[in-house]
Amino acid sequence: MSEVTERRKRGTARDIARRVFRYENATLGIILAAIMGTLAVATGGKTIALRNMKMVVVEGATMGVGAIGQMFVILTSGIDLSVAGMAFGTSALGSAMMTTQLWQNILGYAAPIWVAVPAMLAMGVGLGAISGLFVSRIGIPPFIATLGMWQIAHGIGFLITGGFTIARMIDPLRFFGQRFIYGFPVAGIIWIVVGAVVYFVLHYTSYARSVYATGSNPVSAWLSGVNVKNTQLSVYMISGFMAALGGLIRTGRVMSVSYSSFDFLELQTIASAVIGGVSLFGGKGTVVGVVLGALVIAVVLNGMTILRADPFLESLVLGVIVIAAVAVDYWRGR
Amino acid sequence: MAEELERRERVTFRDIARRALRHENAVIGIALAAMIAVLAVISRGATITRGNMANVLIQSSVRGVAAVGQAFCILTANFDLSVSGIGVMTMMLGSSMMTTEWTNILGYPASPFMAIPVMLAVGACWGLLSGALVSRFNMPSLIVTFGVWQIGYGVAYYVTEGKAVMELPESFAVYGSLPAGPIIFFSVAALAYFVLTYTSFGRRVYAVGGSPVSAYLSGISVKNTYLAVFAISGLCAGLAGMLFTSRAMSGSIEALRGLELDSIASVVIGGVSLFGGRGNMIGVVLGALLIGVINNAMSVLHMGHAGRYIVKGAIIIGAVAADILRRRGR
Predict the structure, then answer these.
(1) How is chain B split into domains, by residue range?
(2) Nearest CA of chain A to the CA of B89: how many Å?
(3) What tens digit of pLDDT does each residue of A87-136 get?
């Protein structure tokens, strides 16, 4: 009797191990661990010091939250190139409302958090809705609609800031980027909460079905009663919201906004999603993978900074990682 | 008899007009003409002076050459995001071969006749690399070329450790200035038009873009076609890098930023479908000129950054929307 239980237990342990390895994000998790291990050795343990790990999470949160929004768009086989522009446009609005430097303030007084933050998020959703309408109602290819929206949102940001750096924001803004709750950064908590909510939405709601269905085959999705147009519209609104949230986190961390604050964010979010196993052809991908993907990029960028690598070596390494991640994914799929 | 002839002539003229209007590049052509006219009025003629028009042509030739290569990729339903990365890499490599400064990597200033082929070959080779990854490993082009773009910047940085290169030989200035720059642009575009319209390779590009499966079933090597279009795009990116280096007579990492998006925008405004298999080179040339005219007018009119970004974004979206609505109307 006890033998049987033991055997069962042993079997279960093996099963668990096997399951873990077969789990779709296993490769990525192992890669992340390997990169962290290598960097820890290369820097003599500096990268895995607790303080630095917190920095990685805070730095990565902007990209990670944006990547979750990007994932929704890519799941419908679209792409959102406007993330960086949106993050700048919305952060420009928020910071111009919250700055105490009155000549830069568009309201004439420093607005409290509960006025400025909803305004930022609403602007993100609104601009996202415009690209969503162009894509779903007129049929403009997502690449073009969001490329145009990137320019427009960036232009709006310039319009608000006049091209200057906005600083001296009200103090409560630090909450989003510099504060810790029980030693854990608020930015990381936001990232985890967003990830958990999205995980829930993608696993337990009918909305998720329509997103995946739209991405894998819009025609059959339409035929089976999915409102393809509204699904497309909604993912761009989600992506706009996430871009604004990411912008909020970075603004809270740096406490200033300039036109180059969010350079390459759109490419970093796409890279995170793709490294995380989201298929660019739509209909395939998980939020856990996307979070891991963003962590990989954040860890690498942070490690290179600590190693004092040239900024352009960063881009070289990032390029190799993106190509390698996709190559591994394709070989594994064969 | 005379009446009949007259009527015929009249009909023929009307036919020509009708045909011209129904031509697939008619809208973009009219848009370009209208844009030039409107901007000339707004700027009180400042945009259509001879010097300024020459400026537009020279500026457009860098973008245009890159757009011609990009068009080959987009016709097969692929993207080439690596254009500016490859362009900058060839720029830094070529300029640091020719310079008489201490940044020279050869130890002696090479002549342009040696440097230019090297620049073009390097561009084509990096294009081949993207093409190989896309065609042999079935990887999405967006990601491959994004990676190559990053690597290109990294390599460009390594050539001179990020420092700008000056002091290029005087004889190198010819290529990017008037009249050689625009002539190179238009001859490259004409060659591409000929290849796409009158050669079997051109047919293959359209067939693969229209439907890779049916192209494969009719005996076309889809993989080699992909390989070829990326090599062409890389070559054109190298040429664009060369033209820009010659125009600026210096090499700098920041120089070609945004060229990949500008080239994609030119191609798309020119009526090439992002889904592949539809579009032509005349449209691409007009698209590149349109973006050139707008960019130039905005700086002639001293427009701020905000306005520039918003106008450019609106035009990109507007041009594609107009195209889609026109097709739907038929």
Answers:
(1) 27-324
(2) 12
(3) 999 999 999 999 998 888 888 888 999 999 999 999 999 999 999 999 99
